Amino acid sequence: MTPMMAQYLKIKSDHPGAILFYRMGDFYEMFFDDAVAAAAALDIALTKRGKHEGADIPMCGVPVHAAEGYLLTLTRKGFRVAICEQLENPAEAKKRGYKAVVKRGVTRVVTPGTLTEDSLLDARRHNYLAAWAEIRGTGALAWVDISTGEMTVAPCKRVMLPHLLSRLSPPEILCPDALEPELRGMAEETGAALVPLGAASFDSESGQARLKALYAVASLDAFGQFDRVETAALGALVNYLEITQKGKLPLIRPPVREAPGGAMAIDAATRRNLEITQSLSGGRNGSLLATVDRTVTAGGARLLERRLSAPSQDLAEIRDRHDAVEALLDNPRLRDDLRDALKRAPDMDRALSRLSLDRGGPRDLTALRDGLAQAGTIAAMLPDDLPERLVRAAQDLLGHEALTDLLDEALVADPPLLARDGGFVATGYDTALDEARTLRDKGRGLIAGLQAQYTKLTGIGSLKVKHNNVLGYFVETPATHSTRMTSEPLTETFIHRQTTANAIRFTTVELSELERGLLNAGSHALELEKQIFARLCRACLDTAASIGHAARALAEIDLTTGFADLAAGSDWTRPRMEDSRAFDVRAGRHPVVEAALARQSGASFVANDCALSAEDDGAAICLLTGPNMAGKSTWLRQNALIALLAQSGAFVPAREARIGTVSQLFSRVGAADDLARGRSTFMVEMVETAAILNQADTRALVILDEIGRGTATYDGLSIAWATLEHLHNVNRCRALFATHYHEMTTLAEKLDHASNATVAVKDWEGEVIFLHEVRPGAADRSYGVQVAKLAGLPAPVIARARQVLETLEAGDREGGKRAPMLDDLPLFAAPPPPAPVVEKTHPAVDRLAEVQPDQLTPIQALSLLYELRGMVRDG
Ligand SMILES: Nc1ncnc2c1ncn2[C@@H]1O[C@H](COP(=O)(O)OP(=O)(O)OP(=O)(O)O)[C@@H](O)[C@H]1O
C-alpha cells in the first residue's frame, strides 16, 4: 500500500458516515465506495487509480474551484461531505524526506444543516439544524440556523414533534441513536436527514458545560430557565457543530426558549392544505408566503416566513405589530423612502456568520460596512413619534460609527470575492502596504521596460516579455530567430529555457532578479493584506452582538414596511384583535385566489362575510352547502388565512374584521391520496379528522372541507354528521364545515350553535352561473351534472347522469325508495344514442314545409312567394 493510500484510509476511518473529499493539488478526489456513490450522484466519470488488496481502486474527482456546486448537489441528496485539505505545501513535505506524504486533515464536515455559503443557501429562507432529546418521557427540540446564529429550544411532546418539524422543515435532525428506529419514518416524511449520535452527545450535564463554555458564562440563568431535556437538546447541537466545524464554532446567539402556547398551533396537514409557505405542487409560487411577500431584504423575507409559520397568540404582541404597520400605512412617503433605503442593505447576518467560521471574504466585510451605514441612514429616517416597536428598532440600528469608519477607511469600494489574492485594502490605509505595493508596481514597470531594451539589443521587433505560471517572466521570440538567439554574442545575455512549436523562450539574469524582487514585494503586500483582513474580522466579531441587533431591527422594519405596503396596495384592513372567541369578518377575500384571478382573467373576486363568533362556552359552527365549483373551499380557506395573517402581524384582506385570538388552526380536506405513506385515501382523511377531534380546544378554529367523501355515501354522511356533533358538543370551537350531504342541513335546526350557509348560483336555461356569494340558508341541489358538462364530459354520459339523477330524486320524493328505484335502472343498459344534433332551420324553410301546393290558388301562391322572400330578406 502506498503511504498516501495509508493516510487516506486512516482519515477515512475517522469519518465513516461521510464522503471524503481528499485534496490532491487542484482536485478533491474520492476513492472506493465514496467514489462509486459520488460519481452516480454527481453524474461524473468513475475512473480507477492503483490497486488495493489486488482489486482496482475506484476513483472520481471534482476541481477545487468548482467544488461548491458539487457540494450543493451532494448535500441536497442527503450526503455528508468531509473536506480533507492539504495542511502544508509539497515543498514542506519534501523537507521531511523524499517519500513523505503531504500532511492532510479534515477541516470541516459539510452537512445539509450546517451550510453557510451563499451559493448553497436560499437567501430568503432559514436553514435549520435540529436536535431532538428525550428524558423520561419529556421531550425537547432545539434548532439553530448557523448562517444567522439564531438558536431556539422548545419543550415538545413526541406526538407534537411532526408539527414542529413541519413548521421548521430542517434538512437535518440529530437524535440519540437509541431513538433512531422510532424517528426514521417521521424524518423521512419531512424530507430531513436523520443523524443518530451517541448518548454522550445528549448528556444534559455536558450540554450545560458546553453552553457555558460557548458563551463564556458561569451560569445559563441569564438566558432563561432551561430544564434538563432542553439543555440536552441544545448541548447536542453545540457538540455536533464542534465536530463538523472542527472546533471552529460559528457565532451563535444565546438560546431563546419558546414557551408552549406562544405560537398558534398549526399541524403539518393544515400547513399543507392552507399552502402557507409551499403550494400543493411543492414550490413557493402560489403559496400565501409568495403572495404576501413585499419584503426587499433577505433578512426581512426570512422573518416573514418565520412569522407566517408561527403566528403569535399573544394579544399584546399582535397589537404591537399592527400598531407599527398602521403607522407606516399612514405615511406613504416614509414607507417609500424606507423601502428604497432597505433595498441597499446587504445580508449582515450571513456575512457575520461566515466571518466567524473563517469562511468569509472581503465582500463579507463590505456587506457589514454597507449594511451598518445603511442602518444609520434608516434610523435617521424614523421619527421618534412612531410606535414603540419601531422606535426600539431605530435605536438598535445606531452606534456602529466606529466600525463603519474603520471599514470605510480600510476597504476599497468593490473588493474581490476572495481574500487570497489581495487587492481589497484601500490605498492610504496602511503605509507599509502602500510601500510594498509601490515596489511591486515599480518592478512591473521595470520588467515592461526590459522589452524595449532587449528589442534594441537583438534587433528583433517581435520580441516580447511575457509571464505564465510555469516559467514566471520570460523573453520570447518567434522560432525563426532561434539560431541568432542561441549563438554568441546573444547567449551572453539570454539563457535558453524552452522551445515550443512556434517560439523560443529565454530568461536573463536581470529579469530573474527583477522578478524575485517583484515577487517578494508582491507576497509581502499580500501578507500585509491578510493581516489587515484578520484585524478587520476581529473588529467585526467583537461587536457581533450589536451587529446582530441591527440586522434583526432591519428585518423587522422591512417586514413592517412590507405589510404596510401590502395593506395599501391591496386594500387590506387592520383586524380588531380581542381576548374572546369572536370571529366576524366583513367582505373578506382569499389573497391567493384573488391575485390569481386578477393575473389570469382580470376577473374580480367576490368578497364574503363570515359571522362565526362563539358565545359563552358554546361552539360556533357554520355548515356550508353549495354546488361544486361555487367557491366553498375558497371561502373556508380565506377565513383561516385571515386569522393566520392577523396573528402574524399583517393586516387582512377584508373590509372589517374582529377576531378573538385563535390558539390552534386546523384545516382538512376530504380524500387526498397519500400513496407515498401507503395509506388509503379514506384512512388519511380519518386519521386527520381524529387528530382534530382529539385536540381542538375552545379557542381553535377548524375548517373541514367535505369530510367523509372518501367512502360510501351513507358511511360518509354518518361520519360527517357525528364529527360535526362532536365539534359542537365536545370541542366547542369555531368551525366551518363544507359538505355535499344536503341531509346535514337539518342539523342546524337541532344544534344551538350551528347555522347553515350556502354559496349562491343562478340556473340559467339549464346552465349554472357561479355568483360566488355566501348567504345564509341551505343549497337546494348540487348542480354536479351541470358542472360536469362544463368540464367537457361527453354528452351521452351527461344525458345518462341526468337520467340516473331524476330516478334517484323521484325515489327520494316517494319516501326513501332509493334502492328499488335504482334497480329499475338497468345498470348495463346500452347507452342512450347520442342526442341528435338539431340544427336550427330557417323560419322560411319551416313555413315552406307547411305548404300544401294543391290547395293554393294562384294568387295565394304568389303572395306566399312574396312572404317567403320577405322572410329571407329579414334574415
Ligand atoms: N369569492 C369568489 N370570487 C370569485 N371567484 C371565486 C370565488 N370563490 C371561488 N372562486 C372561483 O371558483 C373556483 C372554485 O372554487 P372552489 O374550489 O372554492 O369551489 P368549491 O365549491 O369548493 O368546489 P368543489 O365542491 O367542487 O370542491 C376557484 O378556483 C375560483 O376561481
TrEMBL record:
SUPFAM superfamilies: DNA repair protein MutS, domain I (SSF55271), DNA repair protein MutS, domain II (SSF53150), DNA repair protein MutS, domain III (SSF48334), P-loop containing nucleoside triphosphate hydrolases (SSF52540). InterPro entries: DNA_mismatch_repair_MutS (IPR005748), DNA_mismatch_repair_MutS-lik_N (IPR007695), DNA_mismatch_repair_MutS/MSH (IPR017261), DNA_mismatch_repair_MutS_C (IPR000432), DNA_mismatch_repair_MutS_clamp (IPR007861), DNA_mismatch_repair_MutS_core (IPR007696), DNA_mismatch_repair_MutS_N (IPR016151), DNA_mismatch_repair_MutS_sf (IPR036187). ATP binds at G626, P627, N628, M629, A630, G631, K632, S633. It holds the Pfam family MutS_I. Keywords: ATP-binding, DNA damage, DNA repair, DNA-binding, Nucleotide-binding. Residues 700-716 form the DNA mismatch repair proteins mutS family domain. It comes from the Bacteria. Belongs to the DNA mismatch repair MutS family. This protein is involved in the repair of mismatches in DNA. It is possible that it carries out the mismatch recognition step. This protein has a weak ATPase activity. This is DNA mismatch repair protein MutS. It comes from Meridianimarinicoccus marinus. The gene is mutS.
